[in-house]
Amino acid sequence: MRSSEIIAFVYFAALTVLGWVRPLPAVRRWQITAIGLVMCAAIFTIAHHAPRVVRDWAPGVSVLVGYYMSGRFFVRPSERLEDWLMAWDRRLFGNPATCFAGWPPLLLAYLETVYVTCFLLVPVGFAALVIAGRASLADRYWSMVLAAELGSFVSLSLVQTRPPWLVEQKAALPDRAVHRVASRFVERLTIQANTLPSGHVAGSLAVAFALLGPLPGIGAVFLVLALSIALACVVGRYHYVVDVVSGAALAIAVWAAIQ
Q1: pLDDT digit string, tens, across residues 48-88
Q2: DSSP of 59-81, one letter per residue?
Q3: 3-state secondary structure of 161
Q4: How confident is the model over 213-251, as pLDDT tens digits?
């Protein structure tokens, strides 16, 4: 098995076990077990029997399924931890819901758009490698991305908090139309739980780091996008500052270990 396949297999196997260790409703426990067993079987089968092109792209499914699977663990937030996270935001920004209201609407609209579409960075990043004739780096690419993304998601099985937009006042931004669309996207299509570290930051930076070596120019573009996503997390009140910083630290650690 490739390193990336092992990372995904271990993640789903570990969460399946944790589903029986953590205090969860019976329905959630069986949902986690079913997802975990199916994914472990799929990863093993693909690793040993699927054609190369399938193996090259399959890890992207692990990122998506891994995210929603982690949400099955969210039962009760730690209000004490939420207060600590919010205290850091207030210490740095005063009232974080309004302190960015004076920023140019066009800049804010860009940040919100990049944040909402950040899920596209993972497949587009690998597509860039394929188009450039560097598909042989598939395992390195996915190892970085999976370690960063799944490393962020696994924390939800142990540490549970709500995102700031659910805890306190939502961001008051002048780009109302774009912010409204972004907010509805987050409310309806996410697990409505906070990943600490931020999966958005860790994953997008991991994509950039994975591309910087083989494709420096494209990697630099992805790095700018990743930094924009990190900023958008705070500006739109989608993540706490601590989430963003720890997400960046996780991505850097993964890059240092795998490069």
Answers
A1: 999 999 999 999 999 999 999 999 999 999 999 999 999 99
A2: HHHHHHHHHHHHHTT--S--HHH
A3: strand
A4: 999 999 999 999 999 999 999 999 999 999 999 999 999
CA distance 56 to 4: 10
Can you tell me the distance from the alpha carbon of 209 to that of 190, in angstroms, rounded to the nearest whole number? 25
CA-to-CA dists, residue 86 to 75, 82, 92, 239, angstroms: 20, 6, 10, 10
CA angle 181, 184, 188 (to 5 degrees): 145
Q: Could you tell me the pTM of the whole model?
A: 0.95
* Residue 161 CB partners (closer than 8 Å, separation 6+): 77, 78, 81, 82, 85, 193, 194, 196
* CATH number given to 78-258: 1.20.144
Supply the DSSP symbol for 238. S
